[in-house]
Design a protein that fits this description.
Layout lengths: L9 H21 L2 H20 L3 H6 L12 H49 L3 H22 L13 H14 L1 H6 L2 H21 L4 H21 L3 H21 L3 H19 L5 H19 L1
Helix pairs in contact: 1-2, 1-4, 4-5, 4-8, 5-6, 6-8, 8-9, 9-10, 9-12, 10-11, 11-12
Length: 300
């Protein structure tokens, strides 16, 4: 029609369709930024040349893979189409699964140092707090660098992700002097605000429901612990229902012996409050928090 003569053979064109599918999956799941644009463009070029049967580069270098016409049956074309669908569907599913898995693993590396820093500042342990804080700063920088431009498909639509990471980075950096030479309880309070940001990221992107429910329970648990430390039996009784509901959400996700220990301590705290044993409330609240921390450090 335009004076362009086909110079790609049938199997050449099929190979280009396969390559286009691979480039498309790579752009969608595995790379980000300018590199993803490049792969999308290459995918379009490969698919376009496969459809037209003409490759300008072949003409420039004098290559022609369409010297002899090859008859392709409808069965062969049907099988090839099925193969492409399988590549796109199967490859898309596998890519989504593994990129999500790798993201969670990277997040957990950073988050574990955050949780340890949070825990040790709460325990007023300077050396342990500094060690874990330094690791947190390092891993946060690595995580932020990797995911600043690249987004695995699971968080591809999260327009707030980069802003949240930047906020976390600023908050963590601001606590440097406080953790190393200042008041650790104050640093602990400052670190608590980071937990809410991480929780929001997980919620928005449907990650680790157990982790999300543990964080939600923690907020409620702190309310009843505060009442226990104040030896306020009535406050404990009033707060129990809210805390219990948050724990039910955790139990829905997992209910092994460690989580059952949280329930046992919570119920025991309520029983002490109802019995008016105010002198025992603070100690039991400490047991409740310890049982929670044991689970949270491992799976939160």
């Amino acid at each position: 029609m335009f004076g362009v003569k086909a110079n790609e053979g049938v199997y050449d064109r099929m190979a280009r369709v396969v390559l286009a599918a691979g480039l498309f999956l790579t752009a969608l799941f595995w790379v980000g930024g300018a590199l993803s644009v490049l792969f999308y463009v290459l995918a379009v070029v490969m698919f376009g040349t496969a459809c037209s049967g003409f490759c300008a580069l072949y003409r420039l270098v004098g290559v022609n893979t369409c010297k002899k016409p090859v008859e392709v049956s409808k069965v062969t074309l049907g099988l090839f189409a099925a193969m492409i669908i399988l590549i796109l569907v199967g490859g898309g599913y596998a890519s989504n699964f593994f990129t999500k898995k790798f993201f969670i693993e990277d997040f957990n590396v950073m988050n574990n140092f955050y949780k340890q820093t949070l825990f040790n500042t709460g325990q007023n342990k300077r050396a342990e707090s500094i060690e874990n804080y330094d690791n947190l700063v390092s891993e946060l920088a690595v995580f932020q660098k990797k995911y600043k431009n690249y987004r695995p498909y699971a968080i591809l639509g999260d327009g707030q992700f980069n802003a949240d990471l930047e906020t976390v980075s600023v908050k963590v950096a601001e606590l440097n002097e406080t953790i190393k030479t200042g008041d650790l309880p104050s640093a602990h309070i400052g670190l608590e605000s980071v937990r809410q940001i991480f929780q929001d990221i997980l919620k928005r992107n449907n990650f680790s429901l157990l982790a999300v429910t543990l964080v939600d329970f923690h907020d409620a648990m702190e309310v009843i612990i505060a009442e226990a430390d104040a030896q306020n039996s009535q406050g404990i009784i009033e707060a129990y229902q809210m805390v219990s509901e948050k724990l039910v959400a955790v139990e829905t996700e997992a209910n092994d012996t460690e989580i059952q220990a949280i329930r046992q301590n919570l119920n025991a705290l309520l029983d002490l409050a109802k019995a008016g044993k105010t002198e025992e409330l603070s100690a039991k609240a400490g047991e409740l928090k310890s049982s929670f921390v044991k689970v949270y450090l491992k799976r939160g």
